[in-house]
Amino acid sequence: GTILTIRADSDTAGTTGTAIVDVNINGSTIMTTNKLKWDSTEKSTATYSGTAPGLTTTAVAAGDILTTDIDTNHTTKDKGLTIQMSIRMT
How far is the C-alpha of 11 from the C-alpha of 21, rounded, in Å? Predict the structure, then answer.
């Protein structure tokens, strides 16, 4: 399939700093420059005022393993991370 969109949300917003989350397929990032980010007190990457995530890999196949890395978190951590991806089957 092809990844069309990606976003992240948290149940409880963190404070101080920016949270950055990376998504990997089979151990390799799918966003080499602009990863999923959200600012202090925000609960979603949809409200981030900076650059939107840039997908450098969009192909996904049956059996691929998707993982996430929390590269940076707020000083007071956000809680309840959810990643949403829209994938068009080919």
Answer: 15
How does pLDDT run across 43-90, given as a tens digit for each residue?
Answer: 999 888 888 889 999 999 999 999 999 999 999 999 999 999 999 998
The radius of gyration of the chain's CA atoms, rounded to the nearest angstrom, is: 13
What's the pTM? 0.88
Q: For the chain, give me the number of helices (H) and strands (E)?
A: 0, 6
DSSP-derived secondary structure letter, 61: -
Measured on CA atoms in the order 8, 12, 19, 28, is the torsion positive or negative? negative
Angle, CA of 90, 69 and 77, to the nearest 5°: 130
